[in-house]
Amino acid sequence: MKAKxxxxxxIAVCFAAVMLGCSNKxxxxxxxxxxxxxxxxxxxxxxxxxxxxxxxxxxxxxSSQFDHPILYNxxxxxxxxxxxxxxxxxxLAESWEFTPDLMQLKINIRDNVYFHNGxxxxxxxxxxxxxxxxxxxxxxxxxNLDHVEIVDDLTVIIHxxxxxxxxxxxxxxxxxxxxxxxxxxxxxxQGMQDKPIGTGPFKYVxxxxxxxxxxxxxxxxxxxxxxFKRVIIRTIPDINTMILAxxxxxxxxxxxxxxxxxxxxxxxxxxxxTIDSSTTLTMRFNLLExxxxxxxxxxxxxxxxxxxxxxxxxxxxxxxxxxxxxxxSKSFTSRPPDGxxxxxxxxxxxxxxxxxxxxxxxxxxxxxxxxxPEQRAAEVIQGSLREAGINMSILVVDAATRVEIENRxxxxxxLLSSSSASHLxxxxxxxxLYRPRRPFYPNWNGPRQNEELDAFLLKNRGEPDPDxxxxxxAYVETIDxxxxxxxxxxxxxxxxxWRKGLDVQLCRGLFYKYWxxxx
Length: 519
Fold this sequence. Notes:
It is a single chain. By secondary structure, the protein is of the alpha+beta class. The protein folds into 2 domains: 2-269 and 500-507, Periplasmic binding protein-like II (D-Maltodextrin-Binding Protein, domain 2, 3-Layer(aba) Sandwich), CATH 3.40.190.10; 276-493, Dipeptide-binding Protein, Domain 3 (Dipeptide-binding Protein, domain 3, Roll). It contains 15 helices and 19 strands. The protein has helices at 2-15, 68-74, 123-136, 167-170, 181-194, 239-248, 260-263, 297-306, 309-317, 348-357, 373-388, 399-409, 426-434, 451-460, 466-483, and strands at residues 22-24, 42-48, 79-82, 87-90, 93-98, 104-109, 145-152, 155-160, 202-208, 212-217, 228-235, 253-255, 270-285, 322-323, 365-370, 392-397, 414-419, 486-499, 505-507. The strands form 4 sheets. Strands 2, 9, 10, 11, 12, 13, 14, 15, 16, 17 and 18 form an 11-stranded mixed beta sheet that branches. Strands 5-6-8-7 form a 4-stranded antiparallel beta sheet. The longest helix is centred in the C-terminal third of the chain and has 18 residues, at 466-483. The chain is globular and about 70 Å long.
């Protein structure tokens, strides 16, 4: 009984992540992919700005947000962020239970589930996927995983090195799309990327680089077949061309168009809307010991007080975003309540006082961004800092160059970027971004060394009481704010535009699944 009670506490923690899901435009409470028949022979054509490139859940690199509609439809996961009922539900895990000490999680696997090539799902596939991802991403999966024990064909026990409260959250993320061990033995890692095989509602059919990806309905899906026979994901890098394609009916949906292109759209056949996303726009200062910014806390505090966050919100999202001082949206579990952590307000007089204390003499403050909304935000911030007397420059780079600068050369004073954590719990945010010694990004290891804080971070992740865990993260956020290593600016928004008559859902994360959308 005690174990079940603890398990329910953990699930209650996970249910707080419901805002990850979608704003429901229709009643889909049954959760059946076969509901409705109007669109059973239709194609759904979706437009995206960036080409999806990652088709296997077993990988060691970051995915883009546009990979998610592929991964979450080709694969099933132990648990699923239910975008309709706004909760975390079992998927391939039919039932589960924690031990009283939270050191083990027993999962009973759904029977009679088959991969797209006909292989039956077994405990061996759970073992292979979960342990395989830990081997490919040592320490980065982050859920205190020790090992996975196979009890029988349909039962596994996950053993932890220490209690980990948001373990169920982790079982929903892109890394845990269950792969076939037997198929991997046949084709290897590259073969899984070239021709992914999952148990999900859609089968991967083909990819035309730079053009489109085709998914086909899984007629034998254990939940029942989708109402769409085929989903085609079109890559159209030019947003104006994409909007014209939407207006002409060439495509049905546009995912995450820049809001500027939607504000004055007056086509009666096109509908659009926004919803708060799971990403935060954050300026992260260079923490390398050689960095002058890393060694000048007064300068970092001056920047904190100089930035006009409201102006950034208006310029980038027409005021539809939400100004924030916290890294992580309200959809995250264990989020510290407002008012429980230290925040900065815009105050140019204070900014100038800190600049004087910093002995700032007009030195260039170089901020690296990617083109698009981040660049527009940087231009507004540049104007804000100029008012305080800070000489900020902007270096616009592509994604690959940014990774090179961030993780290798360290040639920057700050990075401005949108980021999140896949499993939407503050544990991941604080342990990856705020740890004095970041195990995953060595170039972010700064001068701050605090073994006591490190120990607290690791301990707090095992606290099953969500209120106590949130209070712990408030304490950590206050420490980070006082050091001014990160400047959190804006809770961002997702956009969706679609042809009138299509029933859609607005998602905070791009975890679209099952394509319930229909006419």
